[in-house]
Protein 1
Amino acid sequence: EPEVTQTPSHQVTQMGQEVILRCVPISNHLYFYWYRQILGQKVEFLVSFYNNEISEKSEIFDDQFSVERPDGSNFTLKIRSTKLEDSAMYFCASSLTGTGRYEQYFGPGTRLTVT
Amino acid sequence: AQSVTQPDIHITVSEGASLELRCNYSYGATPYLFWYVQSPGQGLQLLLKYFSGDTLVQGIKGFEAEFKRSQSSFNLRKPSVHWSDAAEYFCAVGARDFGNEKLTFGTGTRLTIIP
């Protein structure tokens, strides 16, 4: 069964450093998403991406964050200057279409630790 | 804007006993509704989903959920739990609008199974 993959599984970085989290969505999916889950809290939406542009973003997704689909398979989340509060599990997801009509498939997550 | 409430933070159930996890949502129309399960250190796995039609939906691992419009609820049930069901369970709501593709998650219910 096709699945969403994410690398790395765990990233440790120092405050102020840039990080790039990588995802390979399911190949025929058109919508891509990033969510995050701070330890012990709920999963929160960050951004959705369709047709090479951001479709929707949350208040969390400020200028420090950016997303990109650099080629036909990868989908990345960049945090320009990490803060301690960026420490969280970051999940990538993809779906066939938007509107919620088709389920979102989640990757296993990247645990980001900012020290 | 949509929202989800899971009133039970933690539930403990004996193995073999029945289970019901509560979920209430807020959305202006009939939403898309999902239950995801997250085992420790793992990603999110879809258990079941409701889009339309029959209000009782069957999912994987013997789970089912019932959509009750009058109560704005989508409770998850299982007639007999197994020790492997111990995990965190998240209810999520998806919108039916283009340009609003995100899933909004509840805070989760942690399920503990005792022998």
Protein 2
Amino acid sequence: DVVMTQSPLSLPVTLGQPASISCRSSQSLVYSDGNTYLNWFQQRPGQSPRRLIYKVSNRDPGVPDRFSGSGSGTDFTLKISRVEAEDVGVYYCMQGTRWPRTFGQGTKVEIK
Amino acid sequence: EVQLVESGGGLVQPGGSLTLSCAASGFTFSSYSYNWVRQAPGKGLEWVSYISSSSSPIYYADSVKGRFTISRDNAKSSLFLQMNSLRDEDTAVYYCARDPPGAVIGVSFDYWGQGTLVTVSS
């Protein structure tokens, strides 16, 4: 199975400051069609997960442009340019390139 | 509006069975593939099972293979998860999540339901 490793696991941030979450996979996530199926999800307290980013860097409809995804191969990053109070929650990366689909452990973002 | 609504969760004894349902609305159910994803209390997300739009292929996580069965009823716009031989470690909130139309390997989990809690305990 592809192991997804996130860091840090806890991220205290000051409102208005940037935040960055790293996600590394144990194998390349480049599929034979040339695409890289790496997603990012946000789970606010008490809510279901919501997809923010698909195929490394594509924002889902309605996702604020302060969220951005980047990376390639086995190394990926989710950045929040200026953290707002509504961004508090747990963020997960997930790979869809190989079965079984696997998630990272999650990174808890909280306000300092 | 796309909606996925899970139901069927509850308290069940170890070794028991339970069937979860996910009712879809707001889109053409038959065109999409679906997944079950679970989250144990205070833990992260774990993918459980996948069913394609044509019901083949179907995949399971090793942790549930041989005990869980995923199925769908396009006429009723519903997804199911039959869970047998339940164990304490199956205790979790179970979410259904949709995959956009397309290949088996591709973009995934664009919409999620609100989840249903399954508690396995004596």
